[in-house]
TrEMBL record:
It comes from the Bacteria. InterPro entries: HotDog_dom_sf, MaoC-like_dom. This is MaoC family dehydratase. Belongs to the enoyl-CoA hydratase/isomerase family. Residues 10-106 form the MaoC-like domain. Gene3D superfamilies: Hotdog Thioesterase (3.10.129.10). CDD domains: SAV4209 (cd03455).
Length: 143
């Protein structure tokens, strides 16, 4: 992994269910995340994704790429254009820096309106290989 390396893009369909489920899961009960009529009354064309859902999707993007043993150390994002139902968010990343087991990736997520999210994620990658087989059994009892 080198500075400048690009991660493959990830397309995420933005569904009404994803928006509402993400808001509920993060205990964000703001009406703009689940009630289209109230969202429109507040000036939005429809409900829109909350920042915690976006944060989780950015984290998923990184761990999907680097694997389940990768540890997210820092996620710093800023929202821009809202994600509305029916859109597709495309996440893309570029390695900014590597330092031993630590990698910093610049992430950009776009939709039909523009940039939904920009930011950086710092992740630590384990140096030891991931086991490919299960252990032979439980450890022996203490003596």
């Amino acid at each position: 992994m080198n500075s400048g390396d690009r991660l493959p893009p990830l397309e995420i369909p933005v569904t009404r269910t994803l928006i509402v489920a993400g808001a509920i899961a993060s205990r964000d009960y703001q009406d703009v995340h689940h009630d289209p009529d109230l969202a429109r009354q507040k000036g939005s064309p429809d409900i829109f994704m909350n920042i915690l859902t976006t944060n989780g999707l950015v984290g998923r993007y990184i761990t999907d790429h680097f694997g389940p043993r990768a540890v997210l150390r820092r996620v710093a994002i800023r929202l821009g254009a809202p994600n509305h139902p029916g859109d597709t968010m495309v996440l893309a990343g570029t390695v900014e820096e590597t330092d031993g087991e630590t990698v910093t990736v610049r992430v950009i997520g776009t939709n039909a309106i523009g940039r939904h999210v920009t930011g950086t994620v710092t992740v630590t990658l384990p140096s030891e290989p991931v086991p490919t087989t299960a252990p032979d059994g439980p450890p022996p009892p203490p003596s």
